[in-house]
Amino acid sequence: MKRLRQVVGQRLFEAIMKATFYGQFVAGEDQNKIRPTIERLRSFGVKSILDYSVEEDLSQEEAEKREVSASISACGDAAEEGQLRQYHVEQRFADRRYKVTSARTYFYLNEASCEKNMEHFLRSIEAVAGITKSTGLMAIKLTALGRPQLLLQLSEVIMRARNYMQQIAGGTGNVLTHHKTIEDFQRYFGDHGNKPEVQEFMRKITSDKEGIVHLFPWSNILDKDMNLSDSFRVPDPKTGQMRRLISQISPKEEEMFRNMLRRLNHIITLAKDADVRVMVDAEQTYFQPAISRICLEMMRRYNKDKFVVFNTYQTYLRSTYQEILTDLEQAQRQNFYWGAKLVRGAYLEQERARAAAMGYEDPTCESVAATTASFHRCLAEILGRVQAQGKEPRLGIMVASHNEDTVRYAIQLMKERGIGPGDKVVCFGQLLGMCDHITFPLGQAGYSAYKYVPYGPVEEVLPYLSRRANENRGFLAKIKKEKGLLLKEIGRRLVSGQLFYKPEGRYTPV
Questions:
Q1: pLDDT per residue over 36-76, tens digit each?
Q2: Could you say which of 50, 71, 207, 426 has the lowest number of CB atoms within 10 Å?
Q3: Signal peptide span per the entry (predicted)?
Q4: Is 397 helix (H, G, I), strand (E, B) or coil?
């Protein structure tokens, strides 16, 4: 694409791109120029998820340099007792685009660049509200809004807290799944439980009548200017001394954490006011515990009366089913609407390579079949919960898949569970320009169907387009059915003399 631009010049290059790659996978340059595409999709019963797909075209060297400098605290990255290497930057994998074709990547430059990213997301909210008639969604990435070091440190805290629970109570998994009470903790600590600092720790634990939900007061941590170093401390069960679970963090970095949360809150508040749903994209496993924790807290805050925030779950990860069970339990106990986007995942090869190189357990499923089984298991669990909740379920799910068998499986499950297409529980999503033979029949049959619609200036979405091209090299070999349908329709138009036939839709999206 770059060579073509050099040969033919900018204007002709843009015209060629709009007639080919750009025209296939991108809706237009700005919110005015994407309107015809959005309205045409809508006329066939298909809604839109808008994504401003501009990204920097960085060299590998520049990407690695930025990521390493933004992933290490000013206090250093010295080895500490209980440290989990998985949640620390590794030079060989600092370019997070490594072996990733389908996901957009943000590299932190400074706080001003995060503010700029926030402005782009706010413009997407305006576009969704103005064009999609309250049916659209928008997608955001948390790495666009803050320093990656903060997500790494927060993820490590969450996993160390799980290890701590395992140490004192046995069992594995999320703190909530242990169903321990404050009284249990008092027994674990014995005489140490009388120490003022241990009593203060237990006073701040988040719990309800069913037991402990979180070891830390997450709502306060995300709402108020609480010091992270002071917040993430736990009593040593042997000595009663308080020990820090978070690695060293400077006052300036604490302020950056506040800035990241401020940006996210601002985006979601405006989205809620504009009646726009926000999907928080999943990212690498070393960021994901923090992203999911923040996302769940945003659901607790903003999803009290309706769906506003959706979290994304990658089913190629072996832990996803258990994470979903835990999050469903939290949503039930804290009484908020739980929204999920279910995907297979974008970082499989990178995750496997990083785990092998750094010597930790591979977090991914061992095969394509295992990933599909994981996806279907998660889907069946969620829809089973929907059925159990009755007429007004507080669960919503997007089945984001290009796999026809998975979509058929979801439809079959809906029938078995008595969930209708218009029940506002299940929706389906595919990328603009791909798998139209799945999306359009769904929309026309009355199901809630979405296209993930990228937009942005030709020049600035080239990295996105090059990824789509790379992805489709392998993808095209797999979609014999879609290619066959397209060739059949081209043949029909040639024979019938309708070469420039343009069908008109008269459908209304659910």
A1: 999 999 999 999 999 888 888 888 999 999 999 999 988 88
A2: 207
A3: none
A4: strand
CA 407 to chain CA centroid, Å, is 20
Q: CA angle, corner 324, sides to 318 and 330, nearest 5?
A: 145
Gyration radius of the chain over CA positions: 24
Spatial distance between the Cα atoms of 217 and 174, rounded to a whole number of angstroms: 15
Cα 375 from Cα 382, distance rounded (Å):
11
**Three-state DSSP state, 107:** coil
pLDDT value of residue 475: 59
CATH 3.40.640.10 fits 28-146+248-496, yes or no: no
C-alpha span between 95 and 70 (Å, rounded): 12
The pTM assigned to this predicted structure is 0.93
Rounded to the nearest angstrom, the gap between the alpha carbon of residue 86 and the centroid of all alpha carbons in its chain is 20
Which pLDDT belongs to residue 476? 61
CB neighbours of residue 18 within 10 Å: 15
Residue with tokens 């006011």: 273
Give pLDDT tens digits for 386-397.
Answer: 999 888 899 999
State both tokens at 350: 């990178």
Residues 180 and 215: beta-carbon distance below 8 Å: no
- Which residue from 435, 443, 419, 397 is spatially nearest to 47, judged by alpha carbons? 443
Strands 46-52 and 137-140: parallel
CA separation, residue 173 to residues 182, 313, 327 (Å): 18, 17, 12
Helix/strand/coil for 310: strand
HEC string for 37-96: HHHHHHHCCEEEEEEECCCCCCCHHHHHHHHHHHHCCCCCCCCCCCCCHHHCCCHHHCCC
Question: In sequence order, what DSSP letters do the residues of 449-495 get, joined into one string?
Answer: EEEEEEE--TGGGHHHHHHHHHHHHHHTTT-HHHHHHHHHHHHHHHH
Which of these ranges, 174-188, 265-279, 432-446, has the smallest mean pLDDT?
Answer: 174-188
Residue written as tokens 């660049």?
113
Nearest alpha-carbon partner for 121 in 461, 458, 455: 455
Size (the chain), residues = 510
Contact 142, 151 (CB under 8 A): yes
- Region of 206 please: left (phi>0), alpha (psi -120 to 50) or beta: beta
Residues 6+ apart with CB under 8 A from 298: 264, 265, 268, 280, 309
Q: Name which residue leads in pLDDT, 476 or 163.
A: 163
Residues 6+ apart with CB under 8 A from 19: none
Instruction: For the beta carbon of residue 93, count every other beta carbon within 10 angstroms.
Output: 19
Asked whether the beta carbons of 271 and 138 are under 8 A apart, the reply is yes
**What does the alpha-carbon distance between residue 446 and residue 45 come to, in Å, rounded to a whole number?**
7
